[in-house]
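Question: I have long wanted to understand how a fold can be written as tokens. Here is the record:
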Amino acid sequence: MQAMKACSIALAAVLALPAAAQADPVRLRVAWVAAPGELASIMEFKKDVAKHWGQSYSFEALHFQGTPPMMTALAANEVELAPLSYSTVGLGVVNAGMSDLKILADEIRDGVPGWRTNEFMVLKDGPIKAVADLKGKTLATNAIGAGIDIVMEYMLFKNQMTRPKDYNVIEAAFPNMTSLLLEHKADLVTEINPFATNPQLRAAARDLYTMRDAVGGETELAFWTGRGTFLAKNRAAVIDFFEDYLRIMRWYFDPANRPAMLKIVSDFMKLPPEVMDQTTFNHEDFYRDPNATLNLTALQANVDMAEAMGVVKQHLDVSKYTDLTYIEAAAKRLQ
């Protein structure tokens, strides 16, 4: 009798194992490039307003220099979610053969009227007066092939110049762009907030053109992506993540929380709160849709631009790689 009882207990323990395994949080390694605009960089500081954090999923934020290495990590299953740009989604699907890549939700958008657009800057007293003057010069970008880089080079492409025949490009971290320009190590640099507010930069440099000038409209600069197999297997956890993402995003944007938000981002960026106050989560910042709704029309135009430049080797219909049901389910919970 004792033996039968022991066997029953052992059997019950074995049967319970799959349920316990299923209850383990799904591992989410989440990529980011630019803080604080890409919220993965600072989400952990407000996990207290999340509902599912540490329960249905675990969270680890990983920093990358640009979206091309991020796309490589996604292809190698070294991250589960990544905010790619229009340029790298084409590289991922067409060039790297990631046919299961899925576009899931919006992150940040450049060039929306009334909001921030990236600046490409030259010295006020330098020899560069027009785009044509960049021939034979050196341009600085965060990562060759990244969304900002493609737009930077698209303006030269429209002026019948191509790399490396007509100009040179070097890679540098965003915080180093100002010194590269002021020390004459680059003739044009990519400036994003908050570094674009540097008083030395504003005194010595000017916009040669902006991202909105080059594109002629909006740019889907960063949007959430993942791999189809992982997403289908872990749908519930991914929706939970996006619900928490929206909760945290709304907390950061709430005017009532602005003093606390500025303390978080200034500590993270190691910049004074008054500097971060100028350009963080306001109209001097990139546009962010409150429900992370994607502008597919803009995205298709952006991908077509990359194709015209030869960055993407064939036409890509982005609607075939888009699945907005995850973010829509998450947003519906917060209505």
